[in-house]
Fold each of these.
Amino acid sequence: MIVLSELKTLLATPQQIVITTHHKPDGDAMGSSLGLYAFLIQKGHHVSVITPTDYPDFLHWMPNNSNVIVYTEAQEQAIQLVNEAKLIFCCDFNTLSRINELGEHIRNASGLKLMIDHHLDPEDFDDYRHWNINACAAAQLVYDFIVNELKEPELINKDVATCLYTGIMTDSGSFRFPSATSTVYRIGADLIDLGAEHWRIHQLVYDNASENRLRFLGHCLSNKLEILREFNTAIITATAEELQTYNIATGDTEGIVNYALSINGIKLAAFIIERPDRVKLSLRSTGDFPANEICKKYFNGGGHRNAAGGVSDKSLID
Ligand code: 5GP
Ligand code: MN
């Protein structure tokens, strides 16, 4: 482990830095990573953002998106960057299994590993940790890291503010989950003052769906929604064939689970999807019901109390 003063000393001179985030990155994964990127490049560092896989089109508008390296598309380049990096920031995840094959390269790399995360049960692979499960988003922790740890709020420019706002907005359900405290609203207001165009960001993320997604959503709600009243549970399943029929791309299925949770009396919603290699589950819950414990116990997964995920080797059909 290193302490903050050592990290500050390292960041005072230009370094080779890698920022990485979890498999199938979401708005917070990309927002925290690209926000940190836009901050660090102002300090003269050589920075690369590497994602383990591709991510939805509705996140491709973010500043510096064109510099992102997708591991599955540029493996050799990504491995070289990881091996040469002095510092490796791990944003929005805390176990190396969340970044697939890239995880072992990072475990074996000589660079210092710095975790910026808000999930439960961190794995012990890091050298520095800015971790808080009460944060609504990893992007909130990047903000906190810049403002309260490094004390460089003047480096939150429009690009940094835009990315961090995106992460906070997406992970807090547009500032509506219990995690969206008054502090989070104040941070949001600060980011707006610093250049984040909240209305435009919301539009780019949420009003930017493909026609396929909307038609697929209609199919899921009309034909695939099962309600188990006695368990206060709603389930939507989607087979590989259905995904193909609607030509569903990465990101098109995001948020569908929330429609199931919006039914009165429903406390647990599941969206279960047949991926080529395994069945993937997305769970959402309300109140104290721990979706993450179900994922941890039965589906080799985890997450937050009200938003969690996991996988199953069982068939979707049986
Ligand atoms: P989603 O349902 O949007 O894929 O994931 C919701 C949350 O659940 C994510 O932010 C992440 O914290 C967690 N999560 C999703 N899939 C997995 C998984 O396979 N393993 C673990 N540990 N967490 C997951
Ligand atoms: Mn997050």
Amino acid sequence: MEKDPIAVIDFGSQYTQLIVRRIRELGYYSKLYQPGELRETGKPAVVVLSGGPRSTLEDGAPDIDFDYLKGMGVPVLGVCYGMQLLNQKFGGSVAPGNKREFGRATLKNESSGNCIFSGMSETSQIWMSHSDTVENLPEGTKVLARNDDGVPVALKWAEGFYGIQFHPEVSHSTEGNQLLKNFVNMGSDLPDFEIASFKDHLVQRVRDEVNGRKVVCGVSGGVDSSVLAALLHEAEVDTRNIFVDTGLLRKNEAEEVVSLFESFGIPIETIDASEKFLTALKGKTDPEEKRRIIGRLFVEIFFDAVGDDVELLAQGTLYPDVIESATSGSIASTIKTHHNRVDKIMELKSEGRVLEPLDELFKDEVRALGRVLGLPAKVVNRHPFPGPGLAVRCPGEVTEEKLKIIRDADKIFIDLLHEHGQYDNVWQAYAALIPVKTVGVKGDERCYEFALSIRAVTSEDAMTAEWAQLPYEVLGDISNKILNEVDGVNRVLYDISTKPPASIEWE
Ligand code: XMP
């Protein structure tokens, strides 16, 4: 990539990475930087200052090197916190808010065709989430739009400096994409983002970073590690691919993973550790303890196999994982420990012995990369699968009996989603066992068997999710087939919980 990416400066809003994503969706390369990294952005075509949870009025509030920013001579867009900060920097003021204004509002465009609003309606829905507001506007500031209450929600200060008091990156801001597009197009010499040429950049990056070292790569059959293995293969890197069968995988998954890699001419070593995992999980019911046990054992088994003197460990860490681990206060990083960030791996990382070439990409971009690398649709379109596997879909103690039920039901569910053409319409779908036995009737006899939950969600990034509105006839088919064919289940429930408050997985 010769041109520097469009810089999005992260002031900590939960939506910040969406700005990066939206800009990439427009076809331009964009990356997130911390406020202190402004000088490291090079020569970006435009700069966006994101929103954030803090107040610009607080002591120690995140700041920006304004002189340097002005000196860059490129268009700048401040979003919420970014707008308030810019207003202060230009000599205006910010008033503290008593409560957070959160939700939909209406934007009234007063810009008379100012180019940041070109092609947009006179009124449109916007999504707001802020408490402070700009108060005194510096002389010469133009108000480009207001909300219903007449409060300025879009400003223009000096040439090229804009601020908006709403989130254009959120889909509830109905014309948000148009605004971002207008803004980005004010930059000159924009960096194109196109996955086929990005692949060449990644192949080169891998070769440079590997630099003759031997690589080990843990593969799981999931999209990320498969794309990673295919990328290493494309870069002709000497790699040992290790697949740890935890026994917590879906039905036939281990065999399928091996045959996929073989068909690609990529050698793979399988370690069957299912007994070890099941034994370690015996009697354990606490969700976090189960996760910790699995994470620790996985790392132990993996490093037993590869030895401690790994020259370079390749991981399929994605951009959101990196951002989430880096952003303090990130919800995702505090809710669940990410298995790519355990101590042993962090230690290798600090020694420069971890290769994470997918760390600039979002999930859908990884899928596109997989397609460019020639991976079959079945692999690249695969739903995400959690590191701790079926254990997080088996609340309470994990036993082989329960795992078999989950595997059998899951296979029926997923096969039927494919058959009904619904698989690609959902982000993720799976069966989870509810550790409660309920009364039913089978073959004229009373039975006392487990209840099973099936869950299908739509989502953009797994940070939030909606339950998928699958047609009743599809749900009916799934339920009938599970009840007829899976021993040990006499009740099927469809999970209609959104995230938040529910998470996607049960544990
Ligand atoms: P939750 O349950 O937190 O899941 O809403 C969000 C997404 O992350 C996946 N997930 C994991 N992925 N290691 C992973 O690689 C994990 O420990 C893990 N836990 C959850 C989950 O399947 C969903 O896509």
Amino acid sequence: MTNLNAAPQVRSGAKRNLYELSREELDEFVSAFGEERYRAQQIWRWMYEEPVDRFDSMANLPGKLRAKLKASALLGSLEMVAKQRSRDGTEKRVYRLRDDQLVESVLMPYADDRKTACISSQAGCAMGCVFCATGQMGFARNLTAAEIFEQAMIFARELNARGERLSNVVFMGMGEPFHNYDASLAAVRQLMNRLKLGARHITISTVGMAPQIRRFADEGLQVRLAVSLHKTDDSQRSALMPVNGRWGIDELMDACRYYVTRTNRRVTFEWAAIAGENDSVDEAHRLGRLLSGLLCHINIIPLNPTRGYGGAPAKAERLKRFTAVLQDYGLNSTVRVRRGIDIDAGCGQLKAALTRAAENA
Ligand code: SAH
Ligand code: SF4
């Protein structure tokens, strides 16, 4: 069996990634150089408050200390290997991790000035949802908290340099955050404590791991929860999302009700709308009956076609009728525009495209 929490095999040297250190550990690291403690405070500021991407930009540090840092430390472990910008302003990156795994993250700017980073929690994914590019590539390993956090940190740094601010983070990139629960939650806390993001500006999206939804409800955080539902019938949902065989719809809905009762927060249900699969009026009635009375919102996202799955996105006309039915059950829903469609910005798609290109080269 793979040990999910095994430390990645590191490619280069023993340089310490400073983003892996707590404030106290940074103090110790700096003291070990024979430097005064206030230097750690200065470095911390350059990492999180006026973030820079190289030690040479840490203007108030003496040259000798900067040289020592360059020799023994790293400001992050993610190496950008591909970058694309979509016509709608969506920016997508692929990063190489220190053991050569690839992960993606995306930045979506919105008209109201929000800047939302969509980040990955695992390299690949073990959940095997048939419509998902990440699911189609299988599971490689869990990301560490620092690897998750750094994806958002890089966007925050770049935005800061242009006088803008990262406003939201969603765990909707590659991987299932609740299958890497501890690292994902540690990254959430870093986003809150180090990047000063409000909990309400962070969303975790899960395929529907019921026990972890309950555990998450007990954390006492105001972080938002999104649940990928996509189907109302157990056997049909299992065909699209094998995880449903482990935690069926009843168990999932019980966990969602527990979350709402415990937190007083609404759940967002994600609905990847697939033509002829889950966009009918009948399906809308079933969904209406399933969710009626629950504090929730439904996000409908037309399917992003992927290589490994033959389905097509549902048509806007059908979705109008679908949302009208939901309205009759007192359920609010939004049909989302698919972002970055011209740059493979769907979950796992750019990495899949890169891997194909490498294989064909
Ligand atoms: N593993 C988590 C989070 C990452 S996926 C989860 O499944 O919720 C983020 C969202 O993208 C999920 O709602 C997922 O169902 C959806 N998704 C995956 N592939 C998609 C595709 N090809 N088209 C539309 N949505 C997709
Ligand atoms: Fe994994 Fe989410 Fe993709 Fe399913 S949709 S395979 S859980 S990343």
